[in-house]
Here is the input.
Amino acid sequence: MPMFEDPHDAVLAVSLDLTTGFAGTFAGPEEVTPVGRFRDQAVGTLSDLPSDLLSVVAWEWPVEHVGPLQGISATHRNLTLRGVTVIERAINVTGREETVLTEGEGEGEIETELVFSRYIDWLALYAELGAITIARPQVDDRTNLPENVPHDVDPVQ
Here is the structure.
């Protein structure tokens, strides 16, 4: 049995995960927009894995920055949050120490909780907020820096 009978159900599940997880920080539509390969094809059918083990949704979510985010006060700017969410059944996720199986109702079915792993393009989001950092430190004294010229000797030898 597939994880989601209707691919749109996966989009709704991801949307609920994001709106709940970012409540108070971002406000936006109740539904994300699937993008890329996931826009036209059923979620979970793009892999060799059985469709009941894994679903993936690449998405965009237009939001307003309405609350604190890592020390940045609400800017009320309109932004686009972009990412990919991988949805797995908890029984298949390694490293979990608690029991993840619960008895279902009726005829002894076993239900498993779903685990949502969000991979968000934070760099693009912070750039939209105007809070991008440059990772290369400034250098005032350049006299000790090597010249940017090709070397005659292969350093691997």
About this structure: Helices lie at 7-21, 122-129. Residues 36 and 58 are 7 Å apart (CA to CA).
